[in-house]
Specification:
Layout lengths: L11 H12 L6 E2 L12 H10 L2 H7 L9 H12 L9 E5 L2 H12 L5 E6 L3 H9 L3 E8 L2 E2 L1 H10 L6 E4 L13 H11 L5 E5 L28 E6 L11 E5 L1 H15 L4 H12 L2 H27 L5 E2 L7 E5 L6 H10 L2 E2 L1 E2 L12 E5 L5 H19 L3
Parallel strand pairs: 1-12, 3-4, 3-6, 6-7, 7-8
Antiparallel strand pairs: 2-9, 4-5, 8-9, 10-11, 11-14, 13-14
Helix pairs in contact: 1-6, 3-10, 4-10, 5-6, 5-9, 11-13, 12-13
Length: about 400
Amino acid sequence: MEYLFSHMVNSMHAEDVKLLMKQSSGKSMISFAGGMPNNDLFPVKQIDEIYNSLPDNLKKLCFQYGPTSGFPPLIKSLEKYLEKKGLPIKSDKILVTTGSLQAISIITQAFVNKGDIILTESPCFVGALTVFETYGADIQGVPIDENGIIISELKSKIDSLDKIPKFLYITPNYHNPAGIIYSPERKKALLDALSGTGIILLEDDAYNDLYFKEDEKYLTKPIKSYESTDVEIIYTGSFSKILGPGFRLGYMLASPEIFDKSETIKQALDACTSNFNQILANEFLKQGKLDSYLDFLRNEYAERKEILIKSLEKFMPNKVMWNEPKGGFYVWLTLPKNINSTTIFKESVKKGVVFVTGRTFDPKSKKDDCFRLAFSNVPKEDIEKGVKILSGAVKKVLGEN
């Protein structure tokens, strides 16, 4: 039977991700593909203690519907948490979402009609690209360098378009997939470039707390905390990287007008985010458990990053380049121009190592001379072995074996 599906099911990037998941399945795989925490890092004991200590009335409330905007005590805790980052919690409003990807989806639904333009970084978080494609957006990528989106390229792109983009989507702190962090100068230059254009800035900041060195924390200052009078900024964050993706908890901070429209859309999508998870997350914040847990995570991820970088230096051919991230989950590798990562993937998967190919993160699904390695989910004892196998696949494709 021929089904008359809507255009919303047609996403090149969704198909890429599904194919990768099929190819990378298997217990024997060493996976650098998953941009997620390792299961052994989750705060299971702390969450057990929190739930067991809850009074009966809160335990019962865990199983109930909640307000669409979010569990009120969690919103209060989030206000305190975000205020410490310099964010404008007095003028803007928080909407709790079912993961930050839902926040991105809600914002897209609120502003984008089929054919409208969305600007993104190139490369770009594949989950966001999938959302934008689903709503029929015309996605226009702008290249980045080690300091962030290239301002001259952004201005040139905006000037070349025949209509104003609805928004620019960026992940400025420990970028997914490129692992970079925007310099303070680039953040300010970006605001200057957007000033007077009418283009909204959608700032996705899921990795903000995962810096490796305390003296580099200042680099994570959100763009929305900078003083800007005429650039509308919507800020999104997530508990997925700092508590657990299974909680499916995210949030957005936006002006009251955008909040109101977004709350209406969320009501139609799922009525409310899980009260159970919101109550547990709120207690985690309120009881002061997050700070010590983040210290633990930063040390774990920094150690994994060090093992990965040393392994790359030991085994990877000189023709391959990479960045050394200051935080987050990812290392981004660049191949010689005539080599594509999909070919390398086909070789490495035969030997039991998987990663995510460059074309997956390209807004046009074409540029494939880069690839992403996630070190967050790999057991430390598997990292060097995995890099050695991967490097062998690279050498074979380069003709160095």
